[in-house]
User: What shape does this take?
Amino acid sequence: MIANRKIWVLTAVTLLTGVILGLGIASNFNWTNSGIARETPLILEKTSKPVEAVKSQADIQSTGKAFVEVTQKVMPTVVSVTSTKVIRGRSPFSEFFHEDWFGRQFRGRQREQRQEGLGSGVIISPDGYILTNNHVIKEAEEIAVLLDRKEYKAKVIGIDPKTDLAVIKIDEKNLPVVQLGNSDELEVGEWVLAIGNPFSLQLQHSVTAGIVSGKGRNQVGIGDIDYEDFIQTDAAINPGNSGGALVNLRGELVGINTAIVANGWSGGNLGIGFAIPINLAKQIMEQLIASGKVVRGWLGVYIQTANANMVKEFDLPSTEGALVSDVTENSPAEKAGLQDRDFIIAFDGKKISESNQLMHLIATYKPGTRVPVKLIRDGRERMLTVTLGERPDDNEVPRLTTTGGDMNRLGFEVNNLTAELAQEFGIDVESGVIVTDVEEGRVAEKEGLQVGDVIREVNRETIDNVQAFNRIIARLRAGDTVLLRVIRGENKFFVALKVEND
Assistant: This one.
């Protein structure tokens, strides 16, 4: 009996030990299902996610409140601008009457049609000065401003078509004024709000939000604007928003909404809008208020941005700079010693990255200002000091079209520039060859050569006729680069073409 009892005790202890060891091993390998004891950490993990969500929601609410505060601050300074002009045309009834009495009454009578335009503006002074776009009031015979449901007659203080800016004024005092910001400090990705009157007066003071999509946009093909330095934004801008405010989340005016990329027939917003930076607009509006016109600094050079082929031909360190293609006679540049083929890399200590930047920069200086210019000539850096003059008015450049000549290896045709051709095309050049056709898809078209361009030099050799031009072209081999000096209207520039395989 005692032996049996010992056996049972041993068996029980062994089984109990096995169970304990099994549970221990199983727990290490996580073989057991989660029980009640595991619910606490699981609850903690689940509750950690809502904490993050609450934080994110707080950020969103904070941003939303910023939108509200900025809108309430800026909206009273944004006005509706309507313009009216009369278009005079022949009466549509005149074709239906002949020599009878009715015909004599309608014959020669002109029909007057009133055309109305809608835009926006921003109040920049308590005594009624308003900044808007030039195209909003262009050729208007009557201009009205709607403010607090009251209509005011406005007069034009000054316009600047080259930047598409204008200043108008209403007779009122103690008006709310927008706070001007610093557009140079804007960063791509920063939140901005657009405030204006899209499509109709019924939608005035509409607010849209977006980000700064890009800065320094130029050559985007907006009207006749010469000085393009646009802020790009995806804040919805539509017809009627022109002249309205683009503001940051501090409620500061950073741009004047100007143009959109529209969807063809619909004219709707595609998320690509452009605004004039307030730093540029401020310089223009101050001059317009002071004198009614804008006076810009003038250097007197034709400049262009260099490409990779030109870097090789002119032995330049990089494409960052502005290549001088010609110097105007008796200009500040000529008096300071600048030459064609000089490569300007800094102006008044500011680094130059491309030609448009330099053109805009020069225009911001007053005539008579002495400015240091750093350039590269023949592979070596030089410093010159230029006293800027006043930019003269630009003349319109005629658009030329013609055909003739033989297509060359570069994909364009040339003819001798005769006195008859020069007169026909309005070209003020005594000799050279004129481009009469450019073949689609060839290297000449890709590099921007156009019909009517006059070529004066090929690979630094002066060209007086087609024979001299063809003689140089015939020496070229596939892969060679040919450097053309081109005159287009009043512009002079270089074009570098790589010879294609025959």
The domain at 180-288 is CATH 2.40.10.10 (Thrombin, subunit H). Residues 25-55, 91-108, 395-405 have pLDDT under 50 and may be disordered. The two ends are 115 Å apart (CA to CA). Residues 379 and 447 are 25 Å apart (CA to CA).
